[in-house]
Design brief:
The complex is a heterodimer of chains A (506) and B (251). With 506 residues, chain A is α/β, with parallel strands linked by helices. Chain A contains 13 helices and 23 strands. Classes of the chains: A alpha/beta (506), B alpha/beta (251). Bound molecules: adenosine-5'-diphosphate and magnesium ion.
Chain lengths: 506, 251
Amino acid sequence: MTGTTDLEVREGVDRETVEAVQNMGSYKYGWNTEIEMEYAPKGVNEDIVRLISEKNGEPEWMTDWRLEAYRRWVTMTEPKWAMLNYPEIDYQDQYYYARPKSMEEKPRSLDDVDPKLLATYEKLGIPLKEQMILAGVEGAEDAPSEGRKVAVDAVFDSVSVGTTFKDELAKAGVIFCSISEAIREHPELVKKYLGSVVPQSDNYFATLNSAVFSDGSFVYIPEGVRCPMELSTYFRINAENTGQFERTLIIAEKGSHVSYLEGCTAPQRDISQLHAAVVEIVILEDAEVKYSTVQNWFPGDEEGKGGIYNFVTKRADCREARAKIMWTQVETGSAITWKYPSCILRGDDSQGEFYSIAIANNWQQADTGTKMIHLGKNTKSRIVSKGISAGQAQNTYRGLVSMHPRATNSRNYTQCDSLLIGDKCGAHTVPYIEVKNNSSRVEHEATTSKVDDDQLFYCRSRGMDEEEAVALVVNGFCREVLQALPMEFAMEAQALVAISLEGSVG
Amino acid sequence: MLKINNLHVKLEEEDKQILKGLTLEVPAGEVHAIMGPNGSGKSTLSYVLSGRDGYEVTDGEAELDGEDLLDMDPEVRAAAGLFLAFQYPVEIPGVGNMTFLRTAVNAQRKARGEAELTAGEFLKEVRVKAAELQISPDMLKRPVNVGFSGGEKKRNEILQMAMLSPRMCIMDETDSGLDVDAMRLVSEGVNALRSPDRSFLVITHYQRLLDHIKPDVVHIMSNGRIIKSGGPELALEVEQNGYADLLAEAD
Ligand SMILES: Nc1ncnc2c1ncn2[C@@H]1O[C@H](COP(=O)(O)OP(=O)(O)O)[C@@H](O)[C@H]1O
Ligand SMILES: [Mg+2]
C-alpha cells in the first residue's frame, strides 16, 4: 500500500507505480515480522475449538455455537466444483490459533502494542495518523488529518491488535471493534445477527470458519447514522503454517450508511496457507453499505510455489425495503481464490452492485464472481467484472443471477470482460441465470480480448517501457471498477495492478 | 540529425519487400517533406524508424545523431528524441488523455535522468499547450483518442509532440482529414516548435500543408525508395501534374 500518507491527488499510474514496477522481482509485502508467537497445537478438534473460545474470553453460548459448527463440519466434504486445481489440503497439519506473545495480556492501551507490530503496519502503508493512534501517540486523535479520516481495525494473524478513532465513532453511536470484543461487550447484537446471513451450515469453508474463527471486525451503525468516516480492516497473515479465519459482521440499521474497506497481505512462504473468512452484512430499510476489498495475499512465486489459498464467503442481506449494497473487489493476490461476494435482495426495491477486478498471473488460479438473489419486487442488480489473466494463470468468472417468482419487475445487468496477456493463460465465464417470473429482465454481456499490440506500441513510442505500457492499458481496462473504489484504495489498487502483472510480457 | 542509408525492409510474416534501398538525410533544424503515391511505403518507413514490431530490416541502417536507431527499443528511441505523429492514432479505452501524457512525459524524463514533473508543473504546461491547439479541458480528461473526431486525434498528436519536445519529429499524414481551421492550428503548432536543433520529416499528400509549414527539402517516394529530391517547388509540381511524370522520369 503505497503513498497513503501522501494524499496529493494523482491521476492514472502514479510515480510510485512506476517505481514499484521498476523494483519488481519480489512480492512487495513478502517480509515477515519476527515476533514471538503463541500457538495452539496443530490440527482441529473439539478441544482446539474450546481453546480458541476460551482464549477469546467467550461466553458459553458462543462456545456452544462453535462446537455445533465443528460437529457439522466433520460430516461435510470440501466442494470441488470450482475451476481450481490444488493439492489436497491437510486440515490437521495447520495451526488454527496463533497470536503475538505480547498480546497474551490484552494491552490496556495501545502503548502496550509491540513496536514491531506497529512497524508492520507502517510497511502496510496504514495512513500516518492511524499509525500514531495505533501506536498510542498522545493527542494523535486531534492531529490535523490529511484528507479523509479512516478508522482502522488491524488483525494480525488471529488477533485484532487495535482499533483507531473508537471514541469519535462512539460519539456517533457507531460501534467498530473486534468481533471478540463484540461477543463480550455486545452479546445481544452478536446473538441476533451472527450466522443470520451466512448460516453455520452454509458451506464447508464457512462452517469451518464458524468453528474456529479467531477474530475479525464488528461494525454496528445505528438507525439514521451516516458513519462519519471510512472504516477499514487490515488483515495480515504472518505466522507460518497458520490458517487465518476471520469473521466480520456488519449491521446497518434503518437509514444508515457506511463505507468499509478491507486490505489483506501475507508474507512470502514456500508452503501454502489457508485463509477461510466469512463476512456477513445485514442491511435494513433504506440503509446503504459499501464494502471494498483490495486483496493482495501472497500469490505464490513464479514457479507456483506457496501462496495463500483463499476460500471466502461474503454475503450481504438487503433485508428490508430499499436497502443497498455495493461490493467492490480488487483481487490480485492468493494462489487460489474461491470467492463470490453475494447479495440477497430480499427487501422490495433493494439494490446490489458488484464491481470486480481479478488478476491472475504466473500460476495463480481465480474462480470468483457473485450471486445476485432477487427475492423482493423491483430489485436491481449490476455486475461489472474485469478479469485479467497472464502467465499460466486461469481466471474464471462464475456468477449467478436468480429472479424468484415474487421478485417481479426486477432487473439485472451483467458485464463481464476478460483480458488475456500472452497465450498460455485462460479466461472462463460461467454465468448461471434463472428467471422465475415474467416481468423481470436479465442482460448479460461478455467480451474476451487480448492486450492490443497497437496500444502497447503507441505507449512505447511515447516513451513508456513495456511493463508500464501494459500497466497503463490494463488500468484503463479496469477503470470502471477502479472508479468504484474509495480514492485512497483506488491509487493503491492501480499500483497493485502494475505490480501483479510483473513479468507478464516480453 | 536523422540519417537513413540504403534501408531495405520486408514484412516479418510474409515475403514482401516494402522499403527497397531508401536513403535520406535530415540535418538539424530542417524540415523535409515526403510525398508519394499510396502504398509507396511512407507509413512503413515511419513505423520502422520508431520501432514497431512486424518488420524485418534486411539491409541498410538508420541513425539518430550518429546512434544506431534500429537496435533500440521504441521507448529508448522516444527518450532519445524521436517522435512519430501517427497516421492513425490509437485509442486506449479507460486511460485519461492527461494521465497518458503525464506518464509519457515522466517516463522520458526518467529515462534521461531528469527530475519528473510534479502534478502541478505538468498541469500548468499542458493547459497552455492544449489551449494553443484549441484542445478543450474535456478532451484532456477523456480516454486517449476514444470518440475523438479525425481532427481531434491529429491535434492531440501535436499536443503530445509539444509536451514531449522531441528533436526529430516525424508526422505521418497529419493533415489528412483536417479542415482549414484545424490545418492552420496544427501548422502553427508545428511552426512554433521549429528550432535550429529540431528537425521534421513531414509525410503528406498535399501541397496545402506545405504552404503553412515551409519545407527545406521535398522528397518524392515511390515503391520503397526516394526517386527525386528538390526544393519546395517540387511539391507544387506534384500538386499540378500528379506523380505520373515524376514516376516515368524515374523509370
Ligand atoms: N502489416 C502489413 N501487412 C501487409 N501489407 C502491408 C503491411 N504494412 C504495409 N503493407 C503494404 O506495404 C505497402 C506500403 O504501405 P504503407 O507503408 O502503408 O504505404 P503508404 O503509407 O505510403 O501509403 C502497401 O502495399 C501496404 O499494403
Ligand atoms: Mg500511410
